Amino acid sequence: MDSKCERSRLQAGTMRRTIFVKTFWGYLIITVLVALLMTLFAFQTIKKWHVRNLTGDLHRLATAVEPVILNMLSGKSTPGDVDNYIKELGKALSIRLTVIIPDGRVLADSLSVPSGMENHGDRPEIKKAFVGEESEKTRFSTTMMSDMLYLAVPVKQGDSVNAVLRLSLFIDDIEGLRKEIELQIGAVAFILILASLLLTYFISRGIAGPVIELAAASQKVAGGNFNVRVFPRDKGELGVLATSFNEMILRQKELFEDMAGKREELTAIITSINEGLLVLDREDTIILTNRSFNEIVKAGDPVGKKHWEVFRSSEFYELIRRLRSDGDRVSGEIQLNGQDFIASCTMLLIRDAVVITLHDITERKKLETIKRDFVSNVSHELKTPLTSIKGFAETLLEEVEGENRKYIEIILKNTGRMIRIVQDLLILSRLEERSKKIKLEVLDLNELIQNSMKQFFPVARERKLEMVLDAGTVAPKVRGDRFSLEDMFTNLLDNAVRYTEKGGVWIRLAIENQWAVCEIRDTGIGIESNHLERVFERFYVVDASRSRATGGTGLGLSIVKHIVLLHNGEITVKSIPKVGTTFLVKLPLLL
């Protein structure tokens, strides 16, 4: 817990530094970049404006001086007069003036002796001016050994250019003025950056503070503390966020408490269940058990282990395999540690998990075994005396005459019925034995049914009943026990013939999907709908008096169902009173 809190504090500290630093430096860099760009832009703009302004002043001066120079050149003024005028004007205006005649020679210059100056005919601005165009140029002066701004203006008389008046300024003078202005702008920019730095610091703290507080509160909530609250500092978006955060935490606390309560209830319910309960994930790992299951397997805490590490059961493994491949619910009998259980398996599609409940049927299985052994033993014990009684009764019947004969016949009839009941009970006992090994072989159902039908043809002819087999070209084959299946068909046909007074019995063979289907339909007395669910119970008869009259034992259909289940088949019945009954048997088809 301490290490978790320490980790939360470290994360909160790191977040505090990260948010503040990112916000502060982000604002600062943007502010500095904007200030620098604006300063550079201002420097360039001021320089261009200053040069343009000076050029305008030179142009206006040249416009004023041009007529004077033209008049002096057209009159009786000597070159010395022109040179003196230019020198006086240049001194008065603090600029350099030069007059160049068409052959490139310098006629007058305010700062130099014209005769000592080189020919200016090759100067770019001079060339352009002599063709009648005013020209501006900034370049290095070889005469003055300095960078200068030149403006060359043609001195025209009509359409001819008599001379060129060139006005120039030292760039150093312009640069000095520009640097002074730029220095002032730079000082202002520096002050603005310092002010922005302070402002950015407080803005960053104002933004990062609530976010850091929310982050710290979130860390505490992640650690399970739902009592933390965030107090909004303003009514803006961050205030709304803080209020919403508090409401969310309150709601989470309520949901968490509700979930915790339900979890405790569920745990208590699961613990109190008498049946064993376990839950497997998709990897067959045990993720939940209850106390009853732990007592069954006696393996300590099985959570986190594979189910085969806790107990070994081929039946259980087969149930899980069937559940994952065939459907969402299966059940079957398994054995664990010498106990018998009904395992009900259900698939949870949300997590792809399997929930298994184990219902202990050990005592029930013991009772069934006791009951089966009792029935088997009693049947065996009754078989011999009943056979003796029947034998002696048959002997007496041959010797007794008159009215006493009917009593012997009654004894024989009921003895025969009891013998049939004993035989059916013995058959049921054998079918119910789990250890019974049936002899499986490939069988032709068409042949089996025909063999079973032969013994009923005499009775059917005597009662004028039809008995028809409709197999067409179908010859379904199954894997089963010949004698058990013949008993099944014999019992079904016996019921159909016994309870049919007119009409007939029709048998249909077919193949449907992966099933071999046998349908036995009669036009007998039928069965009421409220009896249909119980007709396969042992000793259950729809009409006891009619059953005794026909010699029924009430065990035939129970034997039929046991044989069908023994072959992994299905059997259903449909009936309408006074119309007839239809039994539908489905057996796995041999593919």
Properties at a glance:
single chain; 5-stranded antiparallel sheet; 4 domains; rod-shaped; Beta-Lactamase; 591 residues; Helix Hairpins
Structure description:
The chain has 591 residues and is an alpha+beta fold. It has four domains: 2-177, PAS domain (Beta-Lactamase), CATH 3.30.450.20; 273-360, 2-Layer Sandwich (Beta-Lactamase), CATH 3.30.450.20; 365-432, Signal transduction histidine kinase, dimerisation/phosphotransfer (DHp) domain (Helix Hairpins, Orthogonal Bundle); 441-588, 2-Layer Sandwich (Heat Shock Protein 90), CATH 3.30.565.10. 55% of the residues lie in helices and 20% in strands. The protein is built from 15 helices and 17 strands. The protein has helices at residues 2-74, 79-93, 124-130, 171-222, 237-272, 291-297, 307-310, 314-326, 362-399, 405-432, 445-454, 457-462, 482-498, 544-550, 556-566; strands at 96-100, 106-109, 135-141, 146-157, 160-170, 276-280, 286-289, 329-336, 339-348, 353-360, 441-444, 466-470, 477-480, 504-512, 515-522, 570-576, 580-588. The strands form four sheets. The chain has a five-stranded antiparallel β-sheet, sandwiched between helices. Strand 1 (96-100) and strand 2 (106-109) form a beta hairpin. Helix 4 (171-222) runs parallel beside helix 5 (237-272) and helix 11 packs across helix 13. The protein starts with a helix and ends with a strand. 22% of the residues are buried.
